[in-house]
Design a protein that fits this description.
Largest sheet: none
Oligomer: single chain
Structural class: mainly alpha
Order of helices and strands: HH
Number of domains: 1
Shape: elongated
Distance between the termini: 5 Å
Length: 64
Amino acid sequence: QYPNMFVSKLADSDAEATETLVWLDFARDCEYLSQEHHRELTAGYEEVGRMLNGMIRHPERFTS
């Protein structure tokens, strides 16, 4: 019903996900995370990013 608002919230979510990636890098650099665990979590971040970007590109599929 409100595709522009929906896209705005998705963009906010994408920004938050990107911030999370910065924290993952920080945790790895400070050795709170192993390289392998960092890779696993980063792969999850990348998947979330792909999903959010797909929703941003095609909001009509998710709004009515």
